[in-house]
């Protein structure tokens, strides 16, 4: 394989698929700053308060419809706010102004008055809720068709899949950055597999020891490993199955230096994320984890999922096509996703009477998604690599079959070019002005040409 890398402005151009992945904007800290800005903090406080309230309503007797109405209304209200928040006037209504140190208001008063930025999305949400009740209510105002709570609950599957896809987009983008030059390479599949197996197994053992110590209040490494041997076997089996499933793609990546490094990074990311989901499933079903711990953990997971979804939609590879979402309206879109996510969890938890099974199902779906994305991204990159190699081969073949000029033809071409340059550089020719006596001055034209009447 020839070295076809080109340096242009400091960017090394590899295969098109790697370029597309590396082009994604990965400034996560900037997005965190946008979503957690103090000037929009009341919106985050409102989603915590409202979601908790709706969750308890959903678990009360016959409160599923009311809770579903609340979650859907708030999600739609913030989505509509996001659509118009690119307007400067609208954005000023949902964002706090810069605070002045000389403000005479107390901190407590400023805290309460800061919630005025929630008035616009709240008003839209209430309006949406009233319209839904007017159009779909049956026996009572909040008695809605089953499609509302069921439909909201079914979104949980979408959110679990979105979590895996969003993480895959971010991790593959990180893996595609700062790759070496595209050049032939070699490597050992066994060495790569053994190295990754050692890392994954070590992390699994460390995770078991830490959580067993937190839940059982003991530090007994041997007993902890033995009592959780099932998870280690499950983790190893998952690793072995994924290694076998992706063996052809990873073997091909060893032929190119850039592809090899990308495949090694991306494969490790995928294994770590998948193993963490398996460990979470094991903790929530086998180990002595409390419900409140699961709830807190899943709230953080919800934030992570929404955050990664927003990052994916605002990344360079997607934002050109997804015109409605940008960094300017990332927060209201995130809140809309958050209400929908929380609503789906509440509806499923109500149906199953236990939030633990809901969370376990979500982790299993995310695990399957990341496993599927693992091979898909590898195949996408390698397929594009094959296309690039074929194009390079055709171009090289076309150049090699073109007839080469002889030395005489080359000399003739050079002389022809020089003559053209000399003719064009002849500056002694005078095309206008006085040109001297002409041959027509002494000729009597009446004698030469007889004009007929």
Considering the chains and any ligands shown, give keywords for the structure:
453 residues, mainly alpha, 19 helices, disordered N terminus
Give a brief outline of the structure.
The chain is mainly α. It has helices at 16-22, 28-35, 41-58, 64-84, 88-93, 107-113, 119-136, 147-175, 189-216, 221-227, 229-245, 247-253, 257-285, 291-314, 316-319, 330-352, 355-401, 407-424, 445-448; strands at residues 7-8, 11-12.
Describe the overall structure.
The structure is a single chain. This protein has 453 residues and is mainly α. It has one domain (13-99, 107-397). Helix content is 71%, strand content 1%. It is built from 19 helices and two strands. The chain has a two-stranded antiparallel sheet with strand order 1-2. A hairpin with a 2-residue loop joins strand 1 (7-8) and strand 2 (11-12). Helix 9 (189-216) packs parallel to helix 13. The longest helix has 47 residues, at 355-401. The relative contact order is 0.14. Residues 1-13 and 420-431 have low confidence and may be disordered.
